[in-house]
Amino acid sequence: MTPGPVEVDPRVLRVMATPVLGQFDPEFTDMMNRVMEMLREMFCTRNQWAYPIDGTSRSGLEAVLCSLIEPGDKVLVPIYGRFGHLLTEIAQRSGAEVHTMEVPWGEVFDEEEIIREMDRVRPKIVAIVHGETSTGCMQPLTRIGQACREREMLLVVDAVATLGGTPVDTDGWMLDAVIGGTQKCLSVPAGMAPITYNERAERIIQARKSVERGLAGNLSEPSERRIRSNYFDLGMLQDYWSPKRLNHHTEATSMLYALHEGLRIILYEGLAERFERHRVNERALVAGLQAMGLSLFGNPDCKLSVVTCVNIPEGINGDAVRELLLQQFGIEIASSFGPLHGKIWRIGTMGFSCRKKNVLHVLAGLEAVLIRVGAKVHRGEALQAALDVYEIPS
């Protein structure tokens, strides 16, 4: 019950044990095409390019940013948690002139505030996190994309925590590039990073690819515009995922089986139904925690529906509670980072882990452990409050 990695759906684990096909076997390339089709539906986009990067979620962030950022480009990163700092570091390592803006952890930005800073900085790229698992907050994105279009800027969004658990409307919100992750709401093992990007982003990638062609194969010849990474070069990866099937790297075959099955399960459930399931289980968890006498961290108006952050009661050792919860009940919840370390717990309700049984289990276990360590809680009320939520007609 952490904000990732979460439990892997047993059906996904089963397909990972099937025989490994060659990466150019027609059956396997057909699966590649189906994965692209399903990712377009997941990302709510008609983009031509929607495919996974082989590697954990960070590989997707690096692939997109290093393929779009040229040395000296201005990049604006609004930071409201740990992973905004990660976007900043990746952009800096890609040679960008990075401008940041920050709000206290537990809050998000007013979109107009970001747009005003865009007008001041005039960046090529705005890079932002959609759902911050470090703070349990979710940034609204309904107006920033259109503002970027009007100013000829690109909007790159880290949707690692939100894809598959809450709406990510790539086309409706006018997002230029979006990065997801497998180990959170998709309930697939860590090891792939689904991405999508539109024609505006592709034009930059293709322009940089043309520079590489101009090098006539001489990779020692300097070029500031050449994408610095070979593995994360989206121009080369496009050729691999296109009908050309130009060899780039050996595909992570079993991981693609897993992603294909995970996406199939999600789309069979239905996106609307899946998002509602996450909302209901979140409401039950929150109701139970508050009935127990615990308080939530962060502004409730911007709460991330798949992660709930709980203030650790004063005088209670948060790590000791987590250890007892794991040892006695087999339940893992998370601590947090930076200024929030030792101050909050983070409980995930993501993907396959987002089930009524799990919510009731974590509430019962947490109450028992808190009583054990001497915390004052309202005994017996948490489960009743959660059950009240579940009994409300949908």
Topology of helices and strands:
Elements: H1 10-15, H2 26-43, E1 49-54, H3 57-68, E2 74-79, H4 82-93, E3 97-102, H5 111-121, E4 125-129, E5 131-132, E6 137-138, H6 144-150, E7 154-158, E8 177-179, E9 192-197, H7 199-214, H8 234-241, H9 253-269, H10 271-292, E10 307-311, H11 318-329, E11 344-348, H12 356-372, H13 381-390
Helix pairs in contact: 2-9, 3-4, 10-12, 10-13, 11-12, 12-13
Question: Can you offer a commentary on this structure?
Answer:
The protein has 13 helices and 11 strands. The protein is an alpha/beta fold and 394 residues long. The model has no long low-confidence stretch (mean pLDDT 95). The strands form 3 sheets. A 7-stranded mixed beta sheet has the order 1-9-8-7-4-2-3, with helices on both faces. A two-stranded antiparallel sheet has the order 5-6. Strands 10-11 form a two-stranded antiparallel sheet. The protein has helices at residues 10-15, 26-43, 57-68, 82-93, 111-121, 144-150, 199-214, 234-241, 253-269, 271-292, 318-329, 356-372, 381-390; strands at residues 49-54, 74-79, 97-102, 125-129, 131-132, 137-138, 154-158, 177-179, 192-197, 307-311, 344-348. It is globular, with a radius of gyration of 22 Å. Helices cover 43% and strands 13% of the residues. The chain has 2 domains: 10-267, Type I PLP-dependent aspartate aminotransferase-like (Major domain) (Aspartate Aminotransferase, domain 2, 3-Layer(aba) Sandwich); 272-390, Aspartate Aminotransferase, domain 1, CATH 3.90.1150. Helix 10 packs parallel to helix 12 (356-372).
